[in-house]
């Protein structure tokens, strides 16, 4: 599991929202599988999280995914150092719990900017090197709440639904250019974000999950490894649901 | 890639194409593989045990699984891959042909899951992958019975996933697009051309692409994945 034998050996990967939770777990698995890995976030991961045993040190990039100029700079910096970008995981996200009657215009704009426009900006920035290379794998994080209705969370539901459409558009538009794009749809995953939610809400969702437990960030990370690797070279425009059976009900 | 050492796997329809690749990949990942088919499987290699098996035959299912139980005491992985195509349109489809295709593609999957569950439920663990098709999630002209059977496989998979999740058993479906197999290569150039034109990537996939998806889904890396449809289709279903 290193730069010579890993499933992502030699690939260059960027994971947004990589400071914690799903993004951090994904970045660490990528590094362990041999990728030269960058974490982009508005905050730094905890000390020690950038090091994975037997792997190249992960590089932290200070990036607000809503900032168009910062995206261009971040991708240019990676190209300067590693000359390519093979994998982009658009994972950065924020949530707002208000229902449609109560959601403020500010909260709506903020959630859509990070969760949806951030994916657009990231995809557009990454396509520059990927179209030139004629290869690339883009992985966008949606949510079970991007598929089925839930009470409240109006802005989050809209943005996560938007991500699914944008991913399919990317997949279909650039398939003949060697660029793949897939959506990952997590169910209830034990992340700092989920753990900040009301205990009642969490217990309800886990109770509805057929497998009867919540997932770990690593469960999503392994799905991303599959979609980032050449094992999935014929998979594009798909939605990989990792939810313990929640959406199958 | 994936470590399936110590797992016992049963793959149907393994004589050629996708089933052949799946059996080979599972064995390469370290699993003990029993491969079945109605056709000759002699090129699968000595490390894979092969059995003659018509998936519509409930008694043969019982015998194959009883032998696995006697030899290994367990069955961790079932891949219901055996299937046939049928090109008749609805208005010209005979009841005999309908029954033949539903029997293999749909009832065969039911029998497989039923017999596997006999060993998986007491063990409180197991991973089932059913091979559906892009025709299980969308529509193309003709192939009426095939369509129905492959759609049914998806709902049967979700039913199994939801029913047995709390018993530690996962069930998922893979939806191959146009894959280079003896079955598709035997189709008319016109039909194949239409599929590839409608595939965003513009090319077909290989059986190994489907096998890689199956290996991921049966591995512990997918322990939180159940009841899902995973297309391996070059973007066909995304249009």
Structure description:
The complex is a heterodimer of chains A (249) and B (239). Chain A is of the alpha/beta class and 249 residues long. Chain A has a single domain (12-189, 217-240), classed as 3-Layer(aba) Sandwich (Rossmann fold), CATH 3.40.50. In chain A, 41% of the residues lie in helices and 15% in strands. Chain A has helices at residues 21-32, 68-82, 105-133, 154-174, 192-195, 199-208, 217-228; strands spanning 12-16, 36-41, 59-62, 87-90, 136-141, 179-186, 239-242. Chain A has a 7-stranded parallel sheet with strand order 3-2-1-4-5-6-7, with helices on both faces. The radius of gyration of chain A is 17 Å and the shape is globular. The mean pLDDT of chain A is 96. Chain B is of the alpha/beta class and 239 residues long. Chain B has a single domain (8-232), classed as 3-Layer(aba) Sandwich (Rossmann fold). Chain B has 7 helices and 7 strands. The mean pLDDT of chain B is 96. Chain A binds chain B through residues 7, 168, 171-172, 175-176, 187, 210-212, 215-216, 219, 222-223, 225-226, 231-238, 240-245, 247-249, and chain B through 1, 158, 161-162, 165-166, 170, 177, 199-202, 205-206, 209, 212-213, 216, 221-228, 230-235, 237-239.
